[in-house]
Amino acid sequence: MLVLIADILTAEELADIRETLASLRFGDGRATAGRSARLVKDNQQAREGAAVRRLRENVSARILANPVFAAAVRPKALTPILFSRYSVGQTYGTHVDNPIMHGLRTDVSFTLFLADPQSYEGGELVIESPAGEEAIKLPAGHLVAYPSTTLHRVEPVRSGERLAAVGWARSYVRDAARRELLFDLDTARTRLFEQHGKTPEYDLLAKCAANLTRMWAED
């Protein structure tokens, strides 16, 4: 399941992140790629330091506090977020993300866009599926989350500069189809409650969602 989430960050938070990143040194992004991904990865990543750790902590907290992210991803933990920059001509070719990062199984990948889409050309995140390819380029502060099992790429940047925060989640529910089913159940019961309050039908949906979570969750 691919999920688009708006307004993870406020305008003030985005301004702080951009200002901080503009003052930092960036290194070769291939340093964090797997053996085959290094062959197709051409971007830059903010070097570790106190400023990056502060940004990472703040951005992670905002992501984890988002109710849509919580319902769709059911995160147990996040890997350390990376801040990436793509200048003109840079790209990240087709690859699949590493299954284990920082000791965590990677179930869900996410990209949080930090640059306004009109400020750069190209740089779309393209996610492959049996139905075809989907190119994603979101407003700054918006996030896309998708299964880490998918092949994906970042198209070459033709002008401007693409900034993004990327990371991975270990989910309590390993299987993507089960996560989608739980997300749909949560969405349905939330809408039912908003329209009719706490009814017997709502209670039945809540029971199903809770017990399926007990059945499928890995603690």
TrEMBL record:
InterPro entries: Oxoglu/Fe-dep_dioxygenase_dom (IPR005123), PKHD_C (IPR041097), PKHD_hydroxylase (IPR023550), Pro_4_hyd_alph (IPR006620), Pro_4_hyd_alph_FE2OG_OXY (IPR044862)
This protein's record includes keyword Metal-binding: yes
Cofactor note: Binds 1 Fe(2+) ion per subunit.
Enzyme class, first EC level, given as a word: oxidoreductase
Cofactors named for this entry: Fe(2+); L-ascorbate
GO molecular function: 2-oxoglutarate-dependent dioxygenase activity; iron ion binding; L-ascorbic acid binding
Residues the entry annotates as binding 2-oxoglutarate: 162
GO biological process: DNA damage response; intracellular iron ion homeostasis
Residue span(s) of domain Fe2OG dioxygenase: 76-171
Pfam entry (one): 2OG-FeII_Oxy_3
UniProt keywords, alphabetically: Dioxygenase, Iron, Metal-binding, Oxidoreductase, Vitamin C
EC number: 1.14.11.-
Binding site residues for Fe cation: 95, 97, 152
PANTHER family with a match to the protein in the record: PKHD-TYPE HYDROXYLASE YBIX
Name of the protein in question: PKHD-type hydroxylase
The species this protein was found in: Chelatococcus composti
